[in-house]
Design goal:
7 strands; seven-stranded mixed β-sheet; globular
Length: 206
């Protein structure tokens, strides 16, 4: 069992999209969950509204959320980002971390991955999640989210300002992606992750 789980996303809603189902399962097993959101999400809407939506999603998950409020699209220099993330890692002391894939077409996602790759260098288990702008993973570590796929869609629905204009965040799209992954890995619905590193100090992901 994983006791302390940390998820890092570049924008509000990135974490819920990439690993919301897995986090719901971790929460059900009693894990302490912390979400760290790098940017203020200004390019996607009002920053106050987006922060409130992220807080609502975190509350639904039973997670703590840390908003770093860096400029959307201009996160900053890599050493500064690494230092910020190292501080959050020191606070949480996670035994499992989720963050972005490097194969992505959004610069904030790529920068977040680069910074996390360095900041987590001493951690044994780091899993990388999809975004709408990354490739659809066809291999990796699959997590069965069949019992929580509806609640994952609810987490994304908390981001009201985004769901109305982004079809990939809709209930139908969330279920379709999870169904495709589930079909490939033998589950009804699944999320898939690329392991950056994956030790097994407490057993499998779930």
């Amino acid at each position: 069992m994983w006791d302390r789980v940390l998820a890092i996303g570049a924008h509000p809603d990135d974490i819920e999209f990439g690993c919301g189902g897995a986090l719901l399962r971790h929460a059900a097993q009693g894990a302490s969950i912390t979400l760290v959101v790098m940017s203020d999400g200004a390019r996607g809407g009002d920053t106050t509204e987006r922060a409130a939506e992220q807080a609502q999603a975190a509350a639904m998950l039973g997670a703590k959320v840390v908003m770093l409020q860096l400029p959307d699209g201009r996160l900053g220099e890599l050493p500064h980002l690494v230092a910020l993330l190292e501080a959050e890692i020191a606070n949480v002391d996670p035994d499992l971390v989720y963050t972005h894939l490097p194969e992505d077409t959004h610069q904030d996602h790529v920068q977040t991955h680069q910074a996390m790759r360095i900041a987590t260098r001493n951690l044994s288990s780091v899993l990388l999640f999809e975004s709408p702008r990354s490739p659809l993973l066809s291999s990796g570590i699959a997590v069965d989210i069949s019992t929580v796929v509806g609640r994952k869609a609810d987490l994304l629905s908390a981001h009201v300002s985004q769901v109305k204009d982004r079809r990939e965040l809709s209930d139908e799209a969330v279920r379709a992606r999870a169904l495709l992954h589930g079909t490939r890995f033998g589950y009804d619905y699944a999320e898939v992750f690329t392991p950056l590193r994956f030790g097994l100090p407490f057993g499998p992901v779930m």
